[in-house]
Each structure stands twice: as structure tokens, then as C-alpha cells.
Design goal:
With 305 residues, the chain is of the alpha/beta class. It folds into two domains: 195 residues, 3-Layer(aba) Sandwich (Rossmann fold), CATH 3.40.50; 96 residues, Up-down Bundle (Chorismate Mutase Domain, subunit A), CATH 1.20.59.20. 51% of the residues lie in helices and 12% in strands. It is built from twelve helices and nine strands. It has a six-stranded mixed β-sheet with strand order 3-2-1-4-6-5, with helices on both faces. Helix 2 crosses helix 7.
């Protein structure tokens, strides 16, 4: 099946459906923008490029995106945020998705990003190493609200082949070659090593994701039943009475709903709190028990003497 047929069959892009495509100038995003025009039609498509100004070549990336959008007949919005202090990767991600979400709402459109199956494998391996819990094994979803990933079933090589076939230029981000970033180390070191162990290693990771997602639906239903029986806020005694796996998943569900981090590895600590106890679990969140019921609340600000 051709890449275009694969995307059409996936249904995340459709004729006349408004979509904002995040375009960086790399092969994946260039391929995605071209496919969006072919599938949805140019009048339904707009593009967003974020120029972080972090590299000397950032202006060349923007110029390529402008030329591409002119060629495809797509309006381009360019966002130039000011560089902050702190974690640059987190800041860049927040800027990219924040501006894309704003445009999506403004235009009542989906927001499409060029994540591929190759990115999926690298993401899962990175998350497995960086944080415990089953969320790492569920990977990125094809749709998450307005956010869609039409290329998630395609390998990175397929997007480059598409661009070559269509005569579409793209630029390589030099930071992708640097092992200073953990995800790049997964791409350049871990994935090739797994491929040496078994030639179908990457395909097997994706197949495992599919199976785990099916099983996750069953587990999620069981967790919903436990929490419904436990009341709101849930009774800590009811959660303690559950099998360890259900108790752990229930606690994590509560933390997820509060916008918190992975806490499943701290379930024993949380369920072991006194009837009026509290535990800071990170991510600005606190597990608090009052009158025998568990809630996740914002961590109060520290009071300095």
C-alpha cells in the first residue's frame, strides 16, 4: 500500500476537514504537509512553523517552509518565541504545541504532527528507561483531542522516499545528530543494537503496543468500576482492599485526572498514609487523605521563615 493510500485509509486527514500542520522543514513534516494538501485539499490546510532562533540556520529552515507553502498554496504562520532560561526542550515543546493548539481552536481545525513509527519506537524505549509504569508501553496515540498523527504507522524512511519521489526538499536538523539528547542516543545507539539482536525488533515493539492497548481497555474498565464503588473522593480502605495491580492502576488514574506525574511506583506509600496524611509526589501534586478518602491536590507553596 502506498503512503498516500495508508494515510487516506487511516482517516485522520479527510477531504475538506480543516487541519493545521506543524512543519519544521524536516522530511517527516514536509511529507505530512504535502499529503495533507493531497488528501484534505489546499483550502482546508494551513501550516505553522516555530522559529526558536536557537541555531544560525534557523532562518534557512523558515525560508524552506515558506517556499514549500508557497508551492503548495498553503498559508503559513510563523511563531518566534523568546528564548527562556531552563529546559530548552520542554520550552520548545510547550511553545510548539501551545501555539498549534491556539491556531487549531481559532480555526476549528485538527493539529497534525509528523511523528512516525520510528519516533514511536524511540519514544517507547526512552520512556521505559526514564520512568516506570505502563504509560511508557502505550506510546503515542494517533489522535489525542485535536492532535493527530497521520504518519504514525509509517517508518521514517518512507517519508524521505516520498519527498524524493515528489521532488520536495527538506532540511536535516543538526541537533538530531547530537548524542547530547537522550532521545538521540536511543535513535543512534539503542535502536540499532536491538535491530542487531533481531531484525524485526522495531516491528515487534509496535505490535506489542497494539496488544497492550487492547488489554488496556479491559484494565481501564476494571479501574472505572473500582473507583465507582469507592465513591468520590474514593475510600482509601476500598482501594487498600483491591488486588495490588488494580489498586496501583486506580491510584495512577486519580493522579492522571489531577494532571500529575507517574505515581504508580509509590502506590504502597500513598495507600500506607494515615487517615489524615499527605505525601508530595512530584509534579506540583500532593496525595492527601482526609476522613479516610484519597485526593490528589496541588502542593501548597512553601512558607519561608
Amino acid at each position: 500500500m502506498s503512503l498516500e493510500a495508508q494515510v487516506r485509509e487511516g482517516g485522520l486527514l479527510a477531504a475538506g476537514r480543516a487541519v493545521v500542520v506543524l512543519v519544521s522543514g524536516g522530511a517527516d513534516s514536509v511529507c505530512l504537509l504535502d499529503l495533507a494538501v493531497r488528501v484534505a485539499g489546499a483550502p482546508a490546510v494551513s501550516a505553522l512553523h516555530v522559529n526558536y532562533g536557537l541555531r544560525d540556520s534557523a532562518g534557512e529552515d523558515e525560508a524552506l517552509c515558506r517556499a514549500l507553502c508557497d508551492r503548495l498554496g498553503v498559508p503559513l504562520a510563523v511563531h518566534r518565541p523568546r528564548r527562556p532560561e531552563g529546559n530548552l526542550q520542554a520550552w520548545a515543546r510547550d511553545q510548539r504545541y501551545g501555539e498549534a493548539t491556539r491556531l487549531g481552536r481559532e480555526r476549528d481545525a485538527d493539529v497534525a504532527v509528523g511523528h512516525t513509527a520510528s519516533d514511536q519506537v524511540e519514544t517507547v524505549l526512552y520512556r521505559l528507561a526514564a520512568s516506570p509504569g505502563r504509560r511508557a508501553l502505550l506510546g503515542m496515540r494517533e489522535r489525542d483531542g485535536r492532535l493527530v498523527r497521520p504518519l504514525l504507522a509509517a517508518w521514517r524512511a518512507a517519508t524521505e522516499a516520498w519527498c524524493e519521489q515528489r521532488g520536495l526538499p527538506w532540511r536535516e536538523d543538526p541537533s538530531n545528530a547530537s548524542d547530547a539528547f537522550a532521545r538521540n542516543r536511543a535513535r543512534h545507539g539503542l535502536v540499532p543494537s536491538l535491530r542487531e539482536l533481531h531484525p524485526a525488533a522495531e516491528q515487534n515493539v509496535l505490535r506489542t503496543l497494539e496488544l497492550l492497548r487492547d488489554e488496556a481497555d479491559v484494565l481501564d474498565a476494571a479501574v472505572s468500576a473500582v473507583l465507582a464503588e469507592a465513591g468520590s473522593p474514593p475510600s482509601i480502605a476500598h482501594l487498600r482492599a483491591q488486588p495490588p495491580a488494580l489498586a496501583r492502576l486506580s491510584v495512577q488514574r486519580l493522579a492522571d485526572e489531577a494532571g500529575g506525574p507517574a505515581v504508580s511506583h509509590r502506590t504502597a506509600e500513598i495507600l500506607g498514609l494515615a487517615e489524615h496524611g499527605a505525601l508530595d509526589v512530584g509534579g506540583g501534586l500532593r496525595a492527601r487523605i482526609e476522613d479516610g478518602r484519597l485526593e490528589f491536590v496541588s502542593t501548597p507553596p512553601r512558607v519561608h521563615a
